[in-house]
């Protein structure tokens, strides 16, 4: 019994860590641009496909494409490429809707997500079918008398490092100061010789790259990747950000852990729970928003008209 509880707790923390990598991207982009980037998860989930596409090209490097080192290199390149894709999509599409009514930006980013999914589906070999994806690490570690998958530990550790690095950048670097300045007052930032456009592009790069790490670990956790994985991952990541308070990154982390907790609990306790897990997840989100419309850590903004 204790071993089962420990295993479910490990699954909760692993899933929560992966969801948090997606959710903090939603919150970061909303906090800086005040735009809900609904195609954020679609961008993030291009990373596993990019990694799979790069593996044959890396054959003979670091022991071959099928080796853990070869896949790790492909994953790193995919993360960087996904960050660039996010920046390019901002510059070519999303930038046009930055000052448009919120509904226009919402429709545009939803449509952009569909375009990305369909491009993967038709351009990637057998893109409509699931593809097996290797894990960065395999094997188990004996911990407290229990066999713990190394993949889970690495996923948690890398997620903590990525989110910790993001918090460090925002709180302790010149770039972070510029991001905060642009998010609070773009005109004042321009007077201080800060280019909002440069900050927006860098913010998209950071959010997309962190999301790409989440996409790679989510695919590794599932063992496969599908072109439509981003639909569920995007809904869960966005819901976690909203439940925690859209624009609040600590809130996004708390929301991710709550959703992962419900997800894990339902699958562990309810017969055929995997089929109903999203029902309970979104019931939780609805309950949070009914009693706390601004989210758990969000702040209510009062505007005078």
Describe the structure.
Helix content is 70%, strand content 4%. The protein is mainly α and 305 residues long. It has a single domain, classed as Orthogonal Bundle (ABC transporter involved in vitamin B12 uptake, BtuC), CATH 1.10.3470. The strands form two sheets. It has a two-stranded antiparallel sheet. A two-stranded antiparallel ribbon has the order 2-3. A hairpin with a 2-residue loop joins strand 2 (140-143) and strand 3 (146-149). It is globular. The termini are far apart. Belongs to the binding-protein-dependent transport system permease family. LivHM subfamily. One of its GO terms (biological process) is amino acid transport. It is a multi-pass membrane protein. One of its GO terms (molecular function) is transmembrane transporter activity. It is found in: Cell membrane.
């Amino acid at each position: 019994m204790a071993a089962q509880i420990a295993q479910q707790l490990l699954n909760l923390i692993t899933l929560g860590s992966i969801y948090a990598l997606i959710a903090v991207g939603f919150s970061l982009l909303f906090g800086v641009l005040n735009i809900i980037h609904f195609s954020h998860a679609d961008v993030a989930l291009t990373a596993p496909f990019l990694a799979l596409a790069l593996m044959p090209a890396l054959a003979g490097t670091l022991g071959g494409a099928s080796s853990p080192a070869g896949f790790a290199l492909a994953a790193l390149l995919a993360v960087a490429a996904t960050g660039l894709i996010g920046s390019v999509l901002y510059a070519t599409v999303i930038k046009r809707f930055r000052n448009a009514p919120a509904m226009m930006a919402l429709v545009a980013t939803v449509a952009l997500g569909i375009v990305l999914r369909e491009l993967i589906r038709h351009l990637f070999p057998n893109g409509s079918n699931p593809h097996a994806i290797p894990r960065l690490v395999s094997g188990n570690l004996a911990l407290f008398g229990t066999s713990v998958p190394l993949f889970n530990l690495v996923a948690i550790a890398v997620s903590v490092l990525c989110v910790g690095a993001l918090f460090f950048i925002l709180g302790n670097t010149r770039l972070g100061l510029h991001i905060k300045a642009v998010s609070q007052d773009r005109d004042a930032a321009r007077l201080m010789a800060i280019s909002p456009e440069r900050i927006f592009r860098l913010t998209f790069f950071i959010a997309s790259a962190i999301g790409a790490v989440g996409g790679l670990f989510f695919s590794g956790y599932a063992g496969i990747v599908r072109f439509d994985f981003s639909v569920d991952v995007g809904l869960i990541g966005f819901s976690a950000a909203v439940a925690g308070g859209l624009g609040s990154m600590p809130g996004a982390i708390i929301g991710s852990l709550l959703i992962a907790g419900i997800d894990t609990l339902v699958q562990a306790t309810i017969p055929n729970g995997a089929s109903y897990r999203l029902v309970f997840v979104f019931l939780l989100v609805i309950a949070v928003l009914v009693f706390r419309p601004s989210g758990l850590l969000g702040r209510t903004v009062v505007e005078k008209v």
